[in-house]
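Researcher: Batch entry, complex prediction.
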Amino acid sequence: MQPTLRSFDLAHLAHVELLTPKPEESLRFFVDVMGLTESGRRGDSVYLRGWDDYERHTLKLTAARIAGMGHFAYRATSPEALQRRAAVIETSGRGRGWTDGDLGHGPAYAFATPDGHNVEIYYETEWYRPPPELAPALKNQAQRFPARGINARRLDHMNLLTSDVAELRHFLEDVLGLRTTEQIVLDSGQEVGGWVTSNNKTYDLAFTLDHYGAKGRFHHVTYALDSREEILRAADIFLEAGVPIETGPHKHAIQQTFFLYVYEPGGNRVEVANAGARLMLAPDWQPVVWTEAERKKGQAWGLKTVDTFHTHGTPPIEQYTGPRKK
Amino acid sequence: MQPTLRSFDLAHLAHVELLTPKPEESLRFFVDVMGLTESGRRGDSVYLRGWDDYERHTLKLTAARIAGMGHFAYRATSPEALQRRAAVIETSGRGRGWTDGDLGHGPAYAFATPDGHNVEIYYETEWYRPPPELAPALKNQAQRFPARGINARRLDHMNLLTSDVAELRHFLEDVLGLRTTEQIVLDSGQEVGGWVTSNNKTYDLAFTLDHYGAKGRFHHVTYALDSREEILRAADIFLEAGVPIETGPHKHAIQQTFFLYVYEPGGNRVEVANAGARLMLAPDWQPVVWTEAERKKGQAWGLKTVDTFHTHGTPPIEQYTGPRKK
Amino acid sequence: MQPTLRSFDLAHLAHVELLTPKPEESLRFFVDVMGLTESGRRGDSVYLRGWDDYERHTLKLTAARIAGMGHFAYRATSPEALQRRAAVIETSGRGRGWTDGDLGHGPAYAFATPDGHNVEIYYETEWYRPPPELAPALKNQAQRFPARGINARRLDHMNLLTSDVAELRHFLEDVLGLRTTEQIVLDSGQEVGGWVTSNNKTYDLAFTLDHYGAKGRFHHVTYALDSREEILRAADIFLEAGVPIETGPHKHAIQQTFFLYVYEPGGNRVEVANAGARLMLAPDWQPVVWTEAERKKGQAWGLKTVDTFHTHGTPPIEQYTGPRKK
Amino acid sequence: MQPTLRSFDLAHLAHVELLTPKPEESLRFFVDVMGLTESGRRGDSVYLRGWDDYERHTLKLTAARIAGMGHFAYRATSPEALQRRAAVIETSGRGRGWTDGDLGHGPAYAFATPDGHNVEIYYETEWYRPPPELAPALKNQAQRFPARGINARRLDHMNLLTSDVAELRHFLEDVLGLRTTEQIVLDSGQEVGGWVTSNNKTYDLAFTLDHYGAKGRFHHVTYALDSREEILRAADIFLEAGVPIETGPHKHAIQQTFFLYVYEPGGNRVEVANAGARLMLAPDWQPVVWTEAERKKGQAWGLKTVDTFHTHGTPPIEQYTGPRKK
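Model: C-alpha cells for the complex:
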C-alpha cells in the first residue's frame, strides 16, 4: 500500500452536531458532567465548547425526534484551500453547494460522504473571546479551566458507522485529502475499520462497519482530557452522576488511545480519551493494518470488546429510516 | 502582527547533535537514566533514540573537547519540499551546500542560522526497525517501552541561545517557513525570546537572548514524556542518580510546558517535558506576545526563574571562542 | 534516641478550627475552590468536610477579628482511652477540664500545649450521613465525589509554630503519646522542627520554630488529595481562582510530601498534599534526624524554601498579642 | 454487627512465601519486571523486597514442585504483644509452636488457619541496610528507587482462598485480633468474602470462598505502587514483557482498589494496586457488607469479574492434594 499523499488543505475536525431527543438532559450532561461551556443558542440548538477549543464552539447540540449526528465540519487551512477542496468535492459528485455558515463560522461548502453523513468545510471562523468571568489566568489559553465535572479539554475526534468502509476511506483520502494511519482488514480482504487524519494527530476521524448494513449512522464523538489519570477520575465522576458507562477505561490496541465510553442522555455515545503524546510527525507514515487474528486479542491489555460497541449507533437501529437528509 | 504563513515544507525537528567532553559518562546518562536506546556508532559519535521516535536516531552524541550543539536537523515533508526549501535557503545566502547525509538519513542541505548555529534539512530517512528483543507488543509502536530510567519517549524540541532574537526569528519564518507561536518582547521593543513550529506542536524550536552577546550557543534539548506524573517521577530518578537538577518540575507560563531541567555529564542542559495535549490546530494562530511585566511574575505557579537559566549555555561562556565552524 | 512508645490512645487528628476575619470569602474559598462541603452552622462558625472524611466535619471556620487557629482536636480510640489520656493530661498540669462537646461530637477534654495552642480530645462522634443528593455511588465511601474545584479528599495534618520545639515534642510524646517520626536538629543541638503521629500515617501533626519567638501561632492545615497529578491540577485551579500560591508544587525532603501552599482569604496558610502510599507500618520506627547541612540543600529536588515559610503564621506577627485564650 | 475490637498486637502483614515450580523464571519476573531487589538466599529460597519495604524482605520465593503459598507472616507491635498473641493462638488450638526464625527475622510463633494456611508471627526483625549502590538520596527512604520494570513499592496485602469464609473471619478477628472492614454476604446468609486489617490500611488480608471447596489454597499477593497512573504503566510493561494479564486495570467496588492481576511464571497470581489515600482512621469502623445484588453490578465502573478470578488459585485445583503441611 502506498503512503497517502497529504494535501494540507484541511486543518482539523472543527465541530460536530449531535441530535438529541432529550435536549435539556443532554445539555445538563455536557455542561455539568463533561464540563463544557455554553457559548451560544440559535433555534433548537445550543453551542458548546471545551476550555481549550479556540473556536466559538465544537459541539452543536440540537433538539430532534431521534438521536444521531446532524453534521460534522472541518476547518480549511486557508481561504484558497477551502476553494480548492470545494472544487474537488464538486467534481466527485458529492457536493451540495455553499451555505451562509452558522453561528461562529462563515460560508461553508456542504457535501455528503458516500454513506450519507452530512459534512461541511469552511475557513472563516470566530475565535472565542471569553467573558471576564471566564478569562484565563494565562493569556495563551482560550478560556479559564472550569474545575467542574470532568473538565473536557477539546474536541478530539469522531467515529462514523458506515455500510462500506473501503468506499468511505477512498472518499476521505481522495476527495478530502485525509491520510489513513491505521486500518482493520479481515482475512477476506474486507476493510472493517479505518482511522484518518488531517494533521499531526494520529486520527481525527474514524469509521467502522455498521453491522446492520445501515447507512450514515454515528458511532461516537470524543473529547480529549490531559492524562490517563483524568480519564480514571472521569470514570469516578460518571459513576457518581449516574451516567451509563459502556466500557473502559482501558487502552485500545489500535491508536493506543486510553478510552472511556458513555452514553449521553439523548442516547449518543460519547468518548473521553487521553490526548496524550502520540503524534504522527512522519510525512511518509505507512498505514498500520490490523488483521482478524490480531483483533481477536481484544484491547491492548486484553479487555474484550463489548457487544454493544459493534451494534449501538445513533439513530438506534430500531428507529433507523435511512441516511439523514440535511 | 500578521499571522505567519505556513509553508508545510518542513515536517518536524528530526535530530540534534550534542558535543560532550565526557562521552562515556554522557552515554551512560542518556542510556541508563534517560532510557534512550543506542542505535548506531560511527567515528566519535553514538546515535540514540527514544522509544517512540520513528527514525533511527534523534540524538547524535559526539565526543568533543568542549560541550555544545554540533548541528540540528529538520526533516522535509517530501523530496520536492526539500528542494524547494533548499533553494530558498540558497537565496538567503546562508546555504553551505549538500552533504551525502549521515547514518540513518540521506542527502542533506546544510546551512547556518544568522547566529551561526549549524542546521541541516533532509528527506530520505531510515525508519527504525527494532531487533527482536526490542520489538514492541503493539505493532503501531516504534520500539518496546524500555522500563529503564525515565523512559524518554521522543525528541520534543530544542532551544538556542542567540545574540539577536528578532533576526533569528525572521530567518526561521521567512527562510525556513516556520510559524511563530509565542514571543517575549521587552518594553523597549527588543525581542528576547521566540517559539516557532513546523507542525501542530506549539513549538519544536525556541530561542532566547544570549546575555553574554555570544553567537551560536546552545540552551537545551528536550525529550517528551507522557504525563506530568512521569516528569515528577523523572525528578525522583535524577535525584537518585546524582544528576544535577537546575530547576523544576514546574509549569512554564509560556507554552504551559511542564518542565524539568538537568545537566548531562558533558555540561549540556537537557529538559524533560510533558508532551501533553496542547496542540496548535488553528491555521491562523496569532503569536502570543509576553511583556516585560508579565515575565516578572515568574513561571505559571510563581516559581522565579533561576539565574543560571539566563547565563548557562554550551559552550560555557568561559570556553567560548566564537560560533562553531562545521 | 529511643523509639517512642506508642500509646494507641489517640486515633487521628480529627478537626481544626480556623479563625478568619473574612468569613464569607473564606467560606467561598473552602467550598468553591477547595471543594469542601458545608455540613452545619452554629453561632459564628460554619462546619466543613472533605468527601472522604467520615466524621461530620474536619474544619470549623469561625469568624474572628484576627486570623489564626482556634483549636484542634484528636479523636480517641475508645471511651476508655479518652479517660486514660485525659487523666495523663490532667497530671501534666496542662488540662482545662471537660466541655460538653460541639456540633458533631460529644464531651471533650480541653487542654493547652506548653506553647498555648488550644487542643481537645473526644471519643463520641457523629458519623456523616449524606443527604440524598450527596449520597455516593459506592457504599464504602462517605460522600459523593464533588467534581468541584480541587476536590480536597480529607484532613491530613496540621502544622504549629512554637517558641520551643523540644518542649512541645516532649509534651506530644509523653503526655499525648504521639510518636516522633522525623526531626530537624541544628548543629547547636537545638530542635527546630518535629513531625509526630498517632497512627500509621507518617505524621498528622508537625511543629516548627517560630522565628519571632511568639507563642501559640499557627503555620498551616493540610488537606490530602489522591495523587501528585491532582496537586498539579490544584495549582492550575488556584491560579485561575486568583488564590495566592506561596510555594510549590514540589516535594519535601522531610516526609517526602508532595506539597502546594496557598493562603486562604482570611490569611491562614493552607496546604494541599499527596496522601500517597507512604505509611509508617513499623512499630519500632526510629526518628529520622535532619541536620543543618542537610536542610541547606533545600527541598527534595532542590527548590529553596521561601522566606515567608519561616515568618508567616497566623495571627500575623504584627497583630500578635500573646497566646490565644480559649 | 458490632464493630470489631482492635487488639493493636499485630503491626502489619510482613512477608509472604511463594512456592514456584519455575524458580529461575519467577525470580527474573520479580526482579526485572516487578522491580524487586534480591536481599538474600538460603536453601531453595531467594528473599526479595520492594524499595519502600523497611524489613529485609517481604517476599520469600521458594522452589517447589507445585505452585502455592508456603506461609505468610505478621509482625507484632512489641515483644509483649507477640507473647500475648501467641498465648491466645495456643489457646485456640491452632498453634504449632515456636521456630527459631528465618533469614531477616527472629523467633516466630507458627500456627495454621482453620483452613490450613501456614502463618507465623514474630517481633524481632532486621531493618534493611542498603549496600552503597542502593543507598537512597533521601535518608527517610529504605532503598534507592530502582527505575526498573514497574518499581513495586511495598507489600500491600494478600488474598487467601478458603473453604469456609465465616470460620476464617472469626479466627482472624477473635484469635488474631484483626478487624473486618468489608464483606460479601449472599442472600442465603453465607459469607463468601472478607477483608481484614491489623492497622490503618483498610485491609492487609483478604479471603474469598474457594469454589472447589478446597482448603488452604492461595489467591494472590499484592504489591503497592504510588498512583493509578503507575498501575496503567505497569500494564504497558507487563504487556511488553509477555506477562499474562488476567484482568484490569480497573477499580474494585469493594475497597475501591485500583487493580491489575497477572500470573507470575510459576503460576501464582500477583496483583499490583494503588496504595492510594484510602485509610481507615476511624476506631469504630463498621464493616461494609456487600449483597449478592450489589456484586452482580461488577466492578466499580462496570467491568465483569472474569471467571478465572473465581476458580484459579494455587496450587491449581488439578494438582491439589489437601492443605499444605509445613
